[in-house]
Write a structure and sequence with these properties.
By secondary structure, the chain is of the alpha+beta class. The chain has helices at about 30-40, 40-45, 60-70, 80-85, 90-95, 105-120, 120-135, 205-220, 240-245, 260-270, 305-330, 340-350, 385-395, 410-420, 425-430, 445-475, 495-500, 525-530, 535-540, and strands at about 1-10, 10-20, 20-25, 140-150, 180-190, 195-200, 230, 250-255, 275, 280-290, 295-300, 355-365, 370-380, 395-400, 480, 490, 505-510, 515-520. The chain has a nine-stranded mixed sheet with strand order 6-5-4-7-8-14-11-10-9, with helices on both faces. Strands 3-17-18 form a three-stranded antiparallel sheet, with no helix packed on it. A two-stranded antiparallel sheet has the order 1-2. It starts with a strand and ends in a 12-residue tail after the last helix.
Length: about 550
């Protein structure tokens, strides 16, 4: 459709022919595509995985498209990637000649097959290593953890014998009804940037995973120019893994089930030589040789944890008291035919008690038929010392480390462990968000599921690098942006920045058959946001200014 517009200026009439505009949605996708270009993700993949020259796009571009789709937060499964890109400026996000239909399901499937054939774990490590060097990621503190991804449908493990087995196992999603795959991540505490990944069978044991990873990290850490520290939860610490931990610098939580841990917590309260960490926490240090490793065990006491423990144990004490009262009430009228039956009934109750001691009272009566009957009753006493010890133990956690005090103080060890929650666990929450890739497990080949987990982890890599760049730029320039409640912040999440960039469109129209491109929806805040991420991002948002650059919109 064409519209003729008359302009009257100084008695001259100009007739301008304007075509119906075509609109493409850019929003935050320019940030994602720009960082992918900055980090050379496409080239790093293509250098390792040769392509069929007959195909319109490379394997690297197919993987980049899946990353952009996933970070588009549109809840579109990968099978609808061409649909996702229909109203996007694909030539701006990729290169000239690329069209939405090039990202069809067959091409994406072949790309996943190729990265699996190369080795998903190796490919990710090689890309992450290059990225960390380029971005100067602080290498010392590394957090390790695992999670599970639940999937539905049937998977033929016999057909895909080299891939992970998708099967039932312990579900961290609390979906024991679904099959799953286990995913392992090692991330840098500097920005939560993922360094290593590996997919495991759905029934893989966490302790075994930690042992395998510890074994592999020994050589990597030894060859590092700077000391590296491995931080993980209690599943890292076991006797079987001690042979590898002795050759690593580690910080881990000691399992509560460990008898020496319980003993040292009790000793800490007995000696009462706590050192104040802050208003809520204090600690005490014990030197110990455990599993033939010379260590410091740092018992950390938390006021908040004590309050939670007290409430939990008070509920359990009350539940036990109700159980005792219920037993007595029931057996006021009921009797037993023999003493053994009465004692057995009491033992059933006794096994369920932890915070009460009971005295057994069995009375003997003879009824009118001259039958001897036994009546049971218990008298309870609250075990105050056990309750106190349990509250004390639950208010503490114990960290074990073989790192010398001269290298890391107790305060630094505690801080490093606490950053576990804001590094690897935040990454897992991101990966499992329903509006991210979780809805995309439509694939029916185990190998492609493994390939998809690589893509998801690459998306996390892009996301964390974007967040790290934004926060670093704001801090270095002493600038802020408004947060969700319009307060200034220097630590925005990438997702919040992406939301602020909503509403950016590229409009193409023809004026007198001359193509013109304008960007619509920008404002001062959005202009400042796109400056946080580097030159490639800026180029994407500013490219429309070049009269020589024409975007093909179909």
């Amino acid at each position: 459709m064409k519209i003729s517009v008359s302009l009257c200026t100084l008695f001259k009439i100009y007739i301008v022919t304007v075509s119906c505009p075509r609109i493409s949605v850019l929003d935050h996708l320019g940030v994602v595509a720009g960082i992918i270009k900055d980090l050379n993700i496409v080239d790093l993949i293509n250098d390792r995985i040769p392509d069929d020259r007959r195909e319109e796009i490379s394997t690297g571009e197919a993987i980049a498209a899946m990353i952009i789709n996933g970070l588009g937060f549109m809840t579109k499964p990968l099978s609808l990637t061409p649909n996702f890109f229909e109203n996007k400026p694909v030539e701006l996000l990729f290169r000239k000649g690329v069209k939405p239909e090039h990202f069809n399901r067959s091409k994406l499937g072949r790309a996943l097959d190729r990265v699996f054939a190369y080795g998903c774990n190796n490919l990710f490590y090689e890309i992450a290593l290059a990225v960390c060097v380029q971005e100067k990621i602080e290498p010392r503190f590394n957090s390790l953890d695992t999670t599970t991804f639940s999937v539905s449908g049937e998977y033929d493990s016999e057909f895909d014998q080299q891939a992970v087995r998708i099967t039932h196992g312990y579900s961290k999603d609390h979906r024991a009804d679904l099959k799953q795959v286990v995913h392992e991540l090692l991330v840098a505490q500097d920005g939560g940037v993922p360094l290593l990944m590996k997919s495991w069978d759905g029934n893989a044991n966490d302790n075994k995973i930690m042992q395998e990873r510890s074994k592999e990290l020994v050589e990597k850490f030894k060859s590092s120019e700077v000391p590296k520290y491995l931080i993980a939860d209690s599943k890292l610490y076991s006797k079987d893994n001690s042979q590898y931990l002795s050759n690593l610098n580690f910080i881990t939580r000691i399992p509560r089930s460990n008898k020496d841990e319980e003993r040292l917590v009790t000793l800490s309260f007995a000696t009462n030589d706590w050192v104040k960490l802050d208003n809520e926490n204090s600690y005490t240090i014990h030197d110990i040789n455990h599993y033939n490793i010379q260590q410091r065990w740092i018992v950390v006491k938390s006021n908040a944890a004590r309050n939670r423990a007290q409430q939990q144990i008070e509920r359990k004490v009350e539940e036990e008291l109700q159980l005792i009262n219920s037993f007595n009430k029931k057996h006021v009228k009921e009797t037993f035919g023999c003493k053994d039956d009465a004692e057995q009934a009491i033992k059933v109750v006794q096994k369920k008690l932890k915070y009460h001691d009971i005295q057994i009272n069995i009375s003997v009566n003879v009824d009118r038929n001259n039958t001897t009957l036994y009546q049971a009753q218990v008298i309870s006493e609250k075990l105050t010392n056990i309750i106190t010890q349990d509250i004390e133990h639950r208010s503490c956690y114990t960290l074990g480390t073989n790192i010398a005090a001269q290298e890391l103080s107790a305060q630094e060890v505690i801080a490093a462990y606490k950053r576990q929650n804001i590094s690897v666990e935040v990454g897992f929450r991101f990966l499992k968000d329903p509006i991210f890739f979780a809805s995309s497990f439509f694939l029916k080949k185990n190998s492609r599921i493994e390939g998809l987990l690589l893509v998801m982890t690459l998306a996390l890599l892009i996301y964390t690098i974007a967040q790290r760049r934004a926060r670093s730029t704001l801090k270095n320039n002493d600038e802020t942006i408004p947060n969700q409640i319009n307060k200034p912040t220097q630590k925005p999440t990438t997702r919040w920045i992406f939301q602020l960039l909503n509403g950016i469109n590229i409009v193409k129209l023809w004026i007198d058959n001359v193509p013109q491109i304008i960007i619509e929806g920008m404002n001062d805040l959005k202009n400042s946001l796109v400056t946080l991420f580097g030159t490639s991002v800026l180029e994407i948002y500013n490219k429309f200014l070049s009269s020589n650059y024409v975007i093909e919109m179909t």
